[in-house]
Design brief:
511 residues, alpha/beta, Rossmann fold, 3 domains, 15 helices, 18 strands, 35% helix, elongated, ClpA/B, membrane
Length: 511
């Protein structure tokens, strides 16, 4: 018999399994009635009769109820999803389309949650014409150029026409880590901060990307925290976000140290190191001064107090730099929003990004605004009572145009140390490094008590709960595979993915 997590919902399971059939039936009928009331009792803030054929009926109370009652072992998911969708749908003019990236192993609820979101936003749920579901293994299974061109046309057409008909359309991409990378590039324009694309506003749409990527990192962190007797409800979302980003990008998304070159004695110039701040967003502190820098996606902001970093970062979307951008010229503004005079851009270098060399390296010469030190001669008054004229040399900073050579790996190659090797970066690289993914959502591996709850739900669904004892249910859960073998803390290898077939087989045996 598997060990149970401390603080698990096991007693609740035993209690519900022991209820008489009449009580269970009454509870089920009451639950259905409550769901129906909740589903219709929270009207949207604007009339829906003309929106999306009258099928747009967002209900966050219903979504929260579904996530609380039907999703097991995923407290981080509940916290993120409801708040994010509520904020997005309530905003009259959101900055961009809402993009979720669901990560986790098999059978832990990623597609299940996408289905719940669809039900909470549209009356017909996944059957709604405004919910578009794609599976990479079915819809985009071919990788040759001809098929990819057709896939691109289809996606552009589906997304454009879908949002034209309903601005709140939902697009779900399952197994997105198996999609051809070029298709991710097709999605990008629709989730960026553009006002319109081809005359259509896409900023109210929702995109859900589902993948197995970073599963090992999520499992490893979950097992470590549980072995330390930290409850799932106390897990830190920021820690999992960092683990997923590292796994997806194969490297740190941010440099630990920065060097900023500007003109002499300017307060921005110097060396900075990364510190941890509010919501795990990176802020860099000057080595010698009490001043801080953070990147908001378009420019660097200079802060002069620590509390400003924590306060301002609550409102700034974290957009890590792409590798080639760490050697580019960046505009710097003060935390009051005013740009520094005469020098709109700075030179910034990341100590972790060596310049690639050898074969397969492409070169690009780029120009940028800069300051140039020049010697000028001026006639000034001098001598006794300044009665004479003298010629003196002065040093001045003049605005100029400078150029630098940018070395980068050619298309089809990625940087490994100082070399360019054949390959492509993971699908998330483009979206993560440009800050286009709004919420990275980790789905945790499930323990034996979560599997038992899944079994209970299947039994209720097929009205067989009274024919199976609690002991039989436990034995059934034990038939699933748990890893690591012989460990005190284990997880289900396939989550709840195979539970339905297991239950149906067991019911057949009982009959």
């Amino acid at each position: 018999m598997m060990g149970y997590e401390k603080g698990s919902p096991r007693k609740e399971l035993e209690r519900t399994m022991a209820l008489p059939i009449g009580v269970v039936a009454a509870v089920l009928i009451l639950s259905i009635f409550i769901y129906a009331v909740l589903y219709s009792s929270t009207p949207p803030s604007e009339p829906v009769t003309t929106i999306c054929d009258g099928k747009f009926n967002p209900n966050m109370t219903y979504l929260k109820t579904l996530l609380t009652k039907r999703l097991y072992g995923q407290p981080l998911v509940r916290d993120v999803v409801v708040k994010a969708i509520h904020s997005h749908l309530a905003a009259p003019k959101p900055d961009k389309a809402l993009v979720f990236s669901f990560h986790g192993p098999s059978g832990v609820g990623k597609t299940f949650v996408a289905d719940m979101i669809a039900k909470a936003v549209f009356t017909d749920g996944m059957r709604s014409p405004h919910v578009h579901y794609y599976s990479a293994e079915v819809d985009f299974k071919h990788t040759d150029d001809l098929h990819i061109r057709e896939y691109k046309k289809r996606l552009r057409r589906d997304i454009s026409e879908g949002v034209r008909r309903c601005q709140y359309s939902i697009f779900i991409f399952d197994h997105v880590d198996r999609m051809p990378r070029d298709l991710i590039d097709t999605i990008k324009p629709f989730v960026e901060e553009y006002v319109k694309v081809d005359g259509i506003n896409f900023r109210k749409a929702i995109f859900i990307l589902i993948s197995y990527s970073a599963s090992d990192a999520i499992i490893k962190m979950t097992m470590k925290l549980r072995s330390e007797e930290i409850e799932r409800e106390d897990f830190s979302l920021e820690g999992f976000e960092e683990a997923i980003t590292k796994s997806a990008l194969g490297r740190q998304a941010w440099c630990p140290d920065l060097k900023i070159d500007w003109y002499h004695d300017h307060p921005v110039t110097g060396y900075y190191h990364k510190i941890q701040t509010y919501l795990h967003r990176p802020v860099y502190k000057h080595d010698d001064k009490e001043q801080y820098l953070y990147f908001n996606g378009t420019h660097w902001v200079l802060l002069f107090e620590t509390r400003n970093a924590a306060t301002l970062l609550m409102y700034v979307r974290d957009k890590p730099m792409r590798p080639e951008e760490v050697r580019k010229q960046w505009k710097v503004v003060q935390n009051d929003g005013l740009a520094f005079r005469d020098a709109p851009e700075i030179r910034l270098t990341c100590s972790e990004m060596p310049v690639p060399s050898g074969g397969n390296v492409c070169v690009d010469t780029r120009t940028h605004a800069c300051l140039e030190t020049v010697q000028v001669q001026r006639i000034v008054r001098c001598g006794f009572l300044w009665l004479h004229s003298c010629q003196k040399n002065f040093t001045e900073e003049h605005q100029a145009t400078c150029a630098y050579t940018h070395y980068f790996c050619c298309k089809g190659f990625i940087q490994d140390g100082t070399k360019c090797v054949k390959g492509h970066l993971p699908w998330q690289e483009e979206l993560l490094t440009q800050g286009l993914i709004d919420h990275v959502v980790p789905f945790l591996p499930l323990s034996v008590e979560h599997v038992e709850l899944c079994i209970r739900d299947v039994l209720r669904e097929i009205s067989k709960e009274t024919n199976m004892t609690m002991t039989r249910l436990r034995r059934l859960a034990d038939e699933m595979t748990y890893l690591p073998k012989d460990a005190m803390v284990q997880y289900s290898k396939h989550g709840c993915f195979r539970v339905r077939n297991l239950v149906l087989t067991s019911i057949t045996d009982l009959d």
